[in-house]
Amino acid sequence: MIRVALIGAIGYVAGTRAGHRRYEQLVHIARWVRHLLGHPAVRATAVTAWRRLVAQWQEHRPLRGSAGEERSGARAEESTAAHGAPQW
Question: Per the record, where are the segments of Basic and acidic residues compositional bias (predicted)?
Fold first, then answer.
């Protein structure tokens, strides 16, 4: 009985240490990404890429109103503006 408890305790301690190490890695990566996204050149590139992605997506997907009819003109432009650059 003591042997099972000892093995369980050792496994618990080893698992929590490994989990904490992985948590620290993820926190480090998150901080690095946040720092990277704060750089003006990276942010501008990300916004440009996002706008191109949205434009490409909308070219391949017909815009439809609530009744199912295709939209055009100002309504389509409003829809494009609503899906503009992400807000970081």
Answer: 62-80
Domain residue extents for the chain: 1-38, 40-88
Q: Are 76 and 63 in contact (CB under 8 A)?
A: yes
Which two three-digit tokens encode residue 47?
Answer: 């916004």
Confidence band (pLDDT; 50, 70, 90) for 85? low
pTM of the predicted model, to two decimals? 0.42
Q: What is the DSSP secondary-structure string of 1-44? A: -HHHHHHHHHHHHHHHHHHHHHHHHHHHHHHHHHHHHHSHHHHH
Q: Yes or no: say if 83 and 54 are a contact pair by the CB < 8 Å rule.
A: yes
Strand partners, 64: 70
